[in-house]
Design a protein that fits this description.
single chain, alpha+beta, four-stranded antiparallel beta sheet, two-stranded antiparallel ribbon, 5 helices, flat, DNA-directed RNA polymerase, DNA-dir_RNA_pol_su2, transcription, DNA binding, RNA_pol_bsu_protrusion
């Protein structure tokens, strides 16, 4: 095959549909899904949050909340008061969701215009997000088969 035929645009839906099995052979749907999910965790979700980086009170414009940092942590489990990393297998066996905390650092103002106080709070957990096995937020990310079996 020549390069021009490989790089030519696919014109009809039928032709595109015929490419799906070839794509699955070469790349695989799981790999495609993991790549998209990793991109979402590392890039897209920050863009969504930082699109509304500052939330301001309409009645009191000097009072606001500002997102300073945003990240997704590793899935934890609390056992006997201590927090440890957990694995998908542990969550499955204990009937828990394999989820990681979504944490933010925020800066905000409070008080009156005469006595305005600016403060920063760090590592505030605002929610948990379900994590797919082997995604970048999973504790098994970039581990070889032997290490994954130990978890």
């Amino acid at each position: 095959m020549d390069k021009e035929s490989l790089m030519a645009l696919v014109k009809t839906v039928v032709d595109k549909f015929q490419l799906v099995p070839e794509f699955r052979k070469v790349r695989g749907l799981v790999k495609q899904h993991l790549d998209y999910l990793n991109y979402f965790f590392q890039t897209d979700i920050k863009r969504i949050v930082f699109a509304n980086v500052r939330i301001q009170a309409t009645r009191y414009p000097y009072i606001y909340i500002r997102f300073l940092d945003f990240r997704i942590g590793k899935p934890p489990i609390t056992m006997d008061g201590s927090v440890e990393d957990t694995s998908p297998q542990t969550c499955r066996l204990s009937d828990q969701m394999y989820a990681a905390p979504i944490m933010v650092n925020i800066g905000y103002t409070q008080g009156s215009p005469d006595n305005l106080v600016r403060e920063i709070n760090r590592n505030i957990i605002i929610e948990k997000m379900a994590i797919m096995w082997r995604s970048c937020c999973c504790v098994l990310y970039n581990r070889d088969e032997a290490e994954r079996n130990r978890w």
